[in-house]
Amino acid sequence: MRDRRSIKAGIVLALFAALTLLPACGSSSNTDGAASDDSVNTTALDDNARQPSGAGTDQTGTSADGDTSSSTISSSTISTDPTANPGSNQNQSPPPTAAPYVPRPLTPGLAGKVIVIDAGHNGGNYSHINDINQLVDAGNGVTKQCDTTGTGSFDGYPEYAFTLSVALELQSTLQAAGAQVVMVRSDSSGWGPCITERARIGNDAHADLAISIHGDGNDAPGARGFHVLVPVTTAQNAAMVPTAQRFGSLLRDAFGATGMPLSNYLGSNGIMYRGDLGGLNLSVVPKVFIECGNMHNAEDLALMRTGEFQRNAANSIATAMANLFG
């Protein structure tokens, strides 16, 4: 009997011990599972919070200090780096579309100002090679050709046609803002004028500002973007250089609203100083050139040949002018 009682007592003690251990094991399992779920959630939240530096960029290509408030996507809204957060965009709504470019009011800054618009090159230059090849004074001790044919796309879209399209858009925009506009050319039927004449037109008009509009043709691999050509000081243009250089920076800042990036092959941060251009050396009124993009680059060309880009280019130039005078 004692043996049976001992056995029963042992069984009871064993069962009691087992029952007391079961809740602890279950509790441990639940705790581990909760930690695992929290780890997954926390990691996902951290991935969304830790955007790589620079991964979210504004969609206009503007410089860091440019005013793109009307046409950009916030860097916290969309990442342009497809590897930044693998899978984190699943089940999310599509990113917002960039708003169309809306220029700032141009008056009263431009009202009454005399602006010269110089559309680069001309349609008749190809048939007047001897005329445009004559050497003329380009100032600063330099002689250059009277004019050149300009560049164009590989499929036949000429620079002179692009520059005139932007120039005519700019003329309309400036006149609507109350400016007095002087056009170096209003069509593409002639040749020239020579660089000396282009400078003289601005000087004779006593212009408050002059701009020469161009498109580049560079064959370096991957070369794209716009840049502004500003004057260096010569004996003739010294008085206008500070204003021209200031306008060049304002134009660089404003032109990013077109969607064209800063040049990655010429200049520094979208600005290039030139002492060999007759249009700048011979001008006594503030003047800059702008290369609106590289017509030998497929991405740049796709923008440049559209009416929307040409209108936005004109609006950006006018905005920079208003900022200069405002």
Distance between the termini: 112 Å
Helix content: 25-40%
User: What is the CATH architecture descriptor of the domain at 114-325?
Assistant: 3-Layer(aba) Sandwich
CATH H-tier superfamily of the domain at 114-325: Zn-dependent exopeptidases
CATH topology heading of the domain at 114-325: Aminopeptidase
Structural features, described:
- GO terms for molecular function: N-acetylmuramoyl-L-alanine amidase activity.
- One of its GO terms (cellular component) is outer membrane-bounded periplasmic space.
- Residues 199-322 form the MurNAc-LAA domain.
- There is one protein chain.
- The protein is globular, with a radius of gyration of 33 Å.
- Helices cover 38% and strands 13% of the residues.
- The protein is built from eight helices and eight strands, in the order αβαββαβαββαβαβαα.
- The strands form two sheets. It has a six-stranded mixed β-sheet, with helices on both faces. The chain has a two-stranded antiparallel sheet with strand order 2-3.
- It has helices spanning 2-49, 129-132, 159-176, 195-204, 241-255, 278-281, 298-304, 307-325, and strands spanning 114-119, 135-137, 143-145, 180-183, 209-216, 227-231, 271-274, 287-294.
In short:
GO terms for molecular function: N-acetylmuramoyl-L-alanine amidase activity. The protein is α/β, with parallel strands linked by helices and about 325 residues long.
Write the layout of secondary structure elements.
Layout: H1 2-49, E1 114-119, H2 129-132, E2 135-137, E3 143-145, H3 159-176, E4 180-183, H4 195-204, E5 209-216, E6 227-231, H5 241-255, E7 271-274, H6 278-281, E8 287-294, H7 298-304, H8 307-325
Parallel strand pairs: 1-4, 1-5, 5-8, 6-7
Antiparallel strand pairs: 2-3, 6-8
GO molecular function, one term: N-acetylmuramoyl-L-alanine amidase activity
Biased composition (Low complexity): 53-92
Biased composition (Polar residues): 27-45
